[in-house]
Prior knowledge:
The protein is built from five helices and 14 strands. By secondary structure, the protein is an alpha+beta fold. It starts with a helix and ends with a helix.
Amino acid sequence: MKKLHLVIILVITWSMFTQCSAVKRSITPAHYKTIEKQTVLIESVTVVTPDKCKNDSKEKDGDEVCQNLIRELPPIRGASVGTGTFIKVGKKIVVLTAEHVCSPDAVPDEVKTDVGITIFTKVEHTINVNSRFFSGKGTILKRNAHLDLCLLSLDSQPNVLVAKIAQSAPERGSKIHYAGAPFGSMSMDMLMLFEGRHAGSRDKFLVFAMPCEQGTSGSGVRNSENQIFSIVQRVNGNFKHMCYGVRADLLREFLGLE
C-alpha cells in the first residue's frame, strides 16, 4: 500500500513539474519586453538625383536643354522596410537582418534618351535603424547575397541586452516565434509577435509554418529559449503562412561562430 502511495505521489509531482516547464517555455510578457528591446525597424532609403547632363545632338540649344533638365528634374526617392535584431559580434553590438533588406536595388548611373541626351545620376543610400529604445544609422558591415544575410554596424552603441544565437535549430514540430514589422507596422507603442512551428528544411533553408509578410524579412526566428536560430527571408506568395529562413549552421558560420 505504501508503494502505491509513493507511485501516486511521484506521478503527481512529475505532472506538476512538466506543467511548470510548459508554462516556462511559453511566451510571457517578460519575454515580450526582452524581444521588444532587441527588435528594430530597418528603413532602406535610396535617393537618385540628376547630377550631370550630356547632349550629343546637333541642336544649337543643346547646352541650354541640359541646364534646364538638371534644374527641373526632381530627385527620385525609394524606400523599403524590414526588421532586424540586436546581436553581439566580437565586442560590438550590431544588427542582424536579411541581405535584401540592407542592400539597395540597382540604379543606373546614367540614363540615355533617343534624342541624344544622357543624364548622369548621383545615388545616395541611407539605412535608418529605429526601435523604441534606439534611433540611428546603419552601415553594411558584412553581407552574403546567396544566404540572404546581412550585418549592420551602428553609428552609436545601444544600451540593450542582445539576443543570443542558438547552437542549432529546434526539433521539427517545435513551437517557434518572431517579432516583425509587417508593412512597416512598428511604433513606440506596438510590436507584432507571431508564433508557429518549425516545419523542416529544404536545401540551405528551413521552412516555418507561421504568418509572414512584407516588412518581416530579417526578423530573428526564435526557439522556446528565446534564442535566434534563423531569420525570416522569404514567404510563399500563394500561402502567407509558409515562410523560409537560412539554416542554423549556416547562420552561425556567417557570424563566425562555427
